[in-house]
């Protein structure tokens, strides 16, 4: 079930042209979620469009959105889907927070290209 959610979210990110999508396997590392998806948009508007697409596609497929934070400011939008947490950054903020380095011990997953 989590793997299909991961595919749905990844495709939603790709469809809205999210940049530099990274998938971290957080199992055995964090109690917060099994997977983190990290990406960025080039503007506030694009970051919000990416978050909306993730929300719509997840709900269309029967997944519950636990919460969304940071949508209005659009600098770092967090979409909590339970086992999958999506971090959508404005490109200017991503390097500052550098979650990939913070969670550097988490293995990165290669996702197949979305069709």
Automatic annotation (TrEMBL):
<dbReference type="GO" id="GO:0090071">
    <property type="term" value="P:negative regulation of ribosome biogenesis"/>
</dbReference>
<dbReference type="GO" id="GO:0005737">
    <property type="term" value="C:cytoplasm"/>
</dbReference>
<comment type="similarity">
    <text>Belongs to the Iojap/RsfS family.</text>
</comment>
<dbReference type="GO" id="GO:0042256">
    <property type="term" value="P:cytosolic ribosome assembly"/>
</dbReference>
<dbReference type="GO" id="GO:0017148">
    <property type="term" value="P:negative regulation of translation"/>
</dbReference>
<protein>
    <recommendedName>
        <fullName>Ribosomal silencing factor RsfS</fullName>
    </recommendedName>
</protein>
<dbReference type="GO" id="GO:0043023">
    <property type="term" value="F:ribosomal large subunit binding"/>
</dbReference>
<comment type="function">
    <text>Functions as a ribosomal silencing factor. Interacts with ribosomal protein uL14 (rplN), blocking formation of intersubunit bridge B8. Prevents association of the 30S and 50S ribosomal subunits and the formation of functional ribosomes, thus repressing translation.</text>
</comment>
<dbReference type="Pfam" id="PF02410">
    <property type="entry name" value="RsfS"/>
</dbReference>
<comment type="subunit">
    <text>Interacts with ribosomal protein uL14 (rplN).</text>
</comment>
<keyword id="KW-0963">Cytoplasm</keyword>
<dbReference type="InterPro" id="IPR043519">
    <property type="entry name" value="NT_sf"/>
</dbReference>
<keyword id="KW-0810">Translation regulation</keyword>
<dbReference type="InterPro" id="IPR004394">
    <property type="entry name" value="Iojap/RsfS/C7orf30"/>
</dbReference>
<keyword id="KW-0678">Repressor</keyword>
């Amino acid at each position: 079930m989590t793997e299909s959610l991961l595919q749905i979210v990844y495709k939603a990110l790709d469809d809205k042209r999210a940049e530099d999508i990274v998938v971290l396997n957080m199992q055995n590392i964090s109690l917060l979620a099994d997977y983190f998806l990290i990406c960025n948009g080039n503007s506030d508007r694009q970051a919000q469009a990416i978050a909306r697409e993730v929300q719509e596609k997840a709900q269309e497929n029967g997944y519950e959105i636990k919460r969304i934070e940071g949508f209005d400011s659009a600098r770092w939008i967090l979409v909590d889907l339970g086992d999958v947490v999506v971090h959508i950054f404005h490109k200017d903020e991503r390097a500052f927070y550098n979650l990939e380095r913070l969670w550097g011990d988490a293995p990165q997953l290669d996702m197949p290209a979305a069709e």
